[in-house]
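We emphasize that the prediction below concerns an isolated chain of 139 residues; any contacts that depend on oligomerization or on bound cofactors are therefore not represented. The input was used exactly as deposited, without trimming of termini.
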Amino acid sequence: ARVFVEQHWCLDTKEAFDRFLGDGKPAAVPRFVVTSNDAIRLIHEAGGTATLAHPGSSKVFEHEVQQLKAEGLDGLETDHADHAPHLREKFHTWAAAMDLVPTAGSDFHGEKVAPDRKLGTASMDPARFAALEARRPRR
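Result of the prediction step, given as a token string:
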């Protein structure tokens, strides 16, 4: 997307994805696909905790999160820049019901990717971070 912008074929990376790189667009390349079960297993084998990012903007359903929990999911991003307050409340409810650690993130991928997004706009309570870390020794 940055090359499209640097070559002046697009005004910004969003336009590059909208016109050329998104699913079904002329320059789209299929991604390598890994199952959720394998992804969670690999994260755990590497000593990490598996969390699901931005379920609101990804349009994830509750039953899908329940399936991921059954596969070993550790946390759910409840506080995200794109989550409206009612979505944050819904995802907090899901996390509590499924014993998932509620997480937060600013989804910052760099100034050139999303100039309007700033690093650190969503923070995670230290107690939640400790709860997420506490899930690691059980592996």
